[in-house]
Amino acid sequence: MTSGDDPLPVDLGEGAILRRYTMDDLGTIWAFVPSNVGVHRAIIRAGVGNVRSRAVPERLGYRQEGLEVGGGKGLGGYYDMVVYAMVEEEWRERSR
Description:
96 residues, alpha+beta, Aminopeptidase, 5 strands
């Protein structure tokens, strides 16, 4: 895996972070997690320059909430992270 393909962390709350996934995985997670685990909000973070990882939450309809300056660290040092989020109600509306 190259540094440009690093897995994007998916914060499932309570410190649970998913790092490797597919588009279908995220759909399955949201179908299960809110009603079975009680998570209300999902956060996806991706490096600003990681176009492939940023495309995933954008295709899924996550809202871009902000920028974490120096929020990620890789072999080349610190880099900025884009933060995306979706709450349970948004996912349910989107899944209809």
